[in-house]
Amino acid sequence: MTVSFQNVVLTGACGGLGQALARELIGKGAAVALVGLDTPVLQALAALAPERCAVYTPDVADTAAMQAMAADWMGSRGTPDLVIANAGVAGGFDTAQTDDLAVMRRMLEINLLGAATTFQPFVTAMRAQRRGALVGVASIAGWRGMPGNGAYCASKGGLIRYLESLRAELRSDSIVVSTVSPGYLRTALTAGNRFAMPGLMEPEDAAHALLAAVARGRTHIVLPARIGWLARLLNLLPEALHDRLLLGQPRKPRVGEAGATAIPGLPVSVDKTIDP
């Protein structure tokens, strides 16, 4: 059975995948709470259907701010039938570097804790109506660790396990919990990558496939599907060989290096990509 979503909360709405999701949902007539940090981008999306959209700019790891957002949205629109925890950041990581520990902490706050703070305000209301879908955007990177990418892999691997737990908890309440594992999407988060990105996917294609799969009740979604099979094949290799193959690849840029994306909420002394 295919479900049509009419009331949606979307975090990370400013990014490449987030904007694509927002545009498709708005185009299909949904009311959408657009959550992100880039106000002009959110306002431009909301202008596509101002009578059905609202803009919110909380830090997704801030429990009180996320609860206030949820209360405001439900006060005017009611309980959502779809909540997408899409907010995420990425960056290289080196345990030997002191500053990178702050990067890891912030990445875990946004990528892992941010999903829980996104879902939490809506669970009780969804249980009461005995329907709804919670979607967490993880990553293929969460399936196995990669050299120089420990913080991101840990955050997405943790998110996958959290979503597994939540799925079991809410199954009897008829709430579907979906784990989305994209491979490489053509977004700002991958623009600085210096390594091969097999299966590179346009965000619009990914958004369409994601929403179609969630509407069908799918609980595990890989984008594109073939990158999941490639990852599974690589994971069959002996660890030593697998590690040697990965060590031969260029690493993801760390914060402050050319091609790195800024991570909101980091101290300026750490995030050297922030202009003074």
Named at the architecture level, the CATH assignment is: 3-Layer(aba) Sandwich
List SSEs in N-to-C order: EHEHEHEHEHEHEHH
List the domain count as a whole number: 1
Task: Give average pLDDT, whole number.
Answer: 89
Coarse morphology: globular
Radius of gyration: 18 Å
Low-pLDDT windows of residues:
none
**CATH evolutionary superfamily:** NAD(P)-binding Rossmann-like Domain
Strand order of the largest sheet: 3-2-1-4-5-6-7
Commentary on this structure:
This protein has 276 residues and is an alpha/beta fold. The protein has a single domain (7-247), classed as Rossmann fold, CATH 3.40.50. It has 8 helices and 7 strands, in the order βαβαβαβαβαβαβαα. It has helices at residues 16-27, 39-46, 63-77, 98-129, 150-170, 203-215, 225-235, 239-247, and strands at residues 7-11, 31-35, 53-56, 82-85, 133-137, 176-182, 220-223. Strands 3-2-1-4-5-6-7 form a 7-stranded parallel beta sheet, sandwiched between helices. α4 links the parallel β4 and β5. α1 (16-27) packs across α6, α3 (63-77) runs parallel beside α4 and α4 (98-129) runs parallel beside α5 (150-170). The chain is globular and about 55 Å long. The protein starts with 6 loop residues before the first strand and ends in a 29-residue tail after the last helix.
